[in-house]
Write a structure and sequence with these properties.
Shape: globular
Helix content: 55-70%
Number of strands: 7
Order of helices and strands: HHEEHHHHHHHHHHHHHHHHHEHEHEHEE
Structural class: alpha/beta
Distance between the termini: 67 Å
Oligomer: single chain
Strand content: 5-15%
Largest sheet: 5 strands, mixed
Length: about 550
Amino acid sequence: MFQRLNHRAGPYALLLLLAGPMFLVNLGGPSLWDIDEGNNAEAAREMLERDNWVVPTFNYQLRVDKPALLYWLQIAAYQWFGVNEFSARLPSALAALVTVLLTYELGRLMFGRSTGLLAGVVLASAVQFCAAAHFANPDPLFNAFTVLALLVFWIGFALGWRGWFVGAGAASGLAVLAKGPAGLLLPFAVVVLFLLWSRRLGLLADRRLVLGVLAFFLVAAPWYACVGAETKAEFLEEFILTHNIGRYLSPMQNHRGPVFYYLVVLMVGLAPWSVFLPLAGGDIFKTLRGQETSSADARSAVRFLGCWIAAYLVFFSLSRTKLPGYILPVFAPAAILIARALDRWRQGAINPPAWVMKLSLVGLGLIGVGVAVGLLLAGGAFAVPFLRGRRLPGLEAWAAVGVVPMLGAAAAGWLLRRGHRAAVVASCAAAAVLFVGAAGIHGGITLDAHKAPKPLAQVILDHQPEPEVRIAVFQYFQPSLVFYCQREVKRLENDREALDFLRSPLPAYLVLPAATWDRLAQRAGDAGRLLARRRDFYRNCDVVVVTNR
């Protein structure tokens, strides 16, 4: 199969045929996930509404959390496809598709076509990468431009092309527009670390580096200058000091974790392919030690990918604020290293102890068992005390998806005993694509029945669509509520403000926990009427809409 795909058109078509449905089918099916999707989708909607592509706002207040690139792409999608969930997520899905193709190109350049193709499949069917493709936040864009910048560097390094400075500078500028300074600092750190290890740091003493710096500033600087001028430096101060330096030095919004947090994230996020990390680790060790018949170019490539992974893992592991999406740029080099090990094993270039592959296939089967049991418990098929009443009915039906990796492992084990190595790899790939693809396409829709913001907003708009309607929340807030209401949602601070809001002569709608309304209902009297009630799994409580109409 691999030998028939000698030209780029074949691998590109296959990768798009596999990843396209995984990332795009039912992309707009689930309502927005809070907190990030609601914030980002609404910020872009408000920029479109105000016809202001410079200053981002959320709930009509300055939003300083992220730069504007994601918002611009979401606005373009809104103009083409309407203001909806599909449009909000489309930039992430397309960025993920581009990253799969870039990973193929990097793997192909480093180790050959078959490794590049398998690396694209591994990346597309890694559970966290596929999930990120369905999520409206800047991480997939940041990841795509990071991979592009480092691919351009490698082309320059491997082929002696000095124009890489300009390409890498422009790509880093786009990464900085997607997420911030890390889009420049971390790729540069990878390059410096690799060149130091290779004793080639002198490559940076090139006057063309000035062109790279110029390309970076031409891409990134104009918007930062404009938003700084329009907000009198408020955006820049808050974004740099609070959302970059502050996040790194102290936990923000209680997003904390131990120093090994990202090792766990990597293991879980690469599933089901993480079961082959022992095989890849052994291959890397032997390659760097010169114990396998690998060329100097291959050793250099493995060294570069190792520097890439190490730089991001160390940097974010030292950060006090930890979120899984921060290390998304590690997934491309990890996918290439896993693909290289599997491809070399398929070809007979490496022959690890027999237990290594057997243990990996057992791990693949156990992933299926764990997913099936977890979904049965989450759906309430079995009563367990530690869930404390948190049940998500409907998830138990999805336990069947765990059968896919079990069957894939069983088939691969049968083929392994008969010595069909290529078929073993193909069986694992098919299981990964079907398993992760099914979860990506349909999983979010099942959970959607347990989210409150969209249906509650729809009740309000159906009942009172006029623009002068006033909407507020008390002791409850999710950013997607603002997106679905498409108007300002006032946040009330105490009982008196909530009651005064309902006593207003204008149409008023108040969203609050049901238990809070039970406490206030008698004091509100005729000023409040229960309009709708919905269970919200974020807060694990019922949420209601109360109106004075």
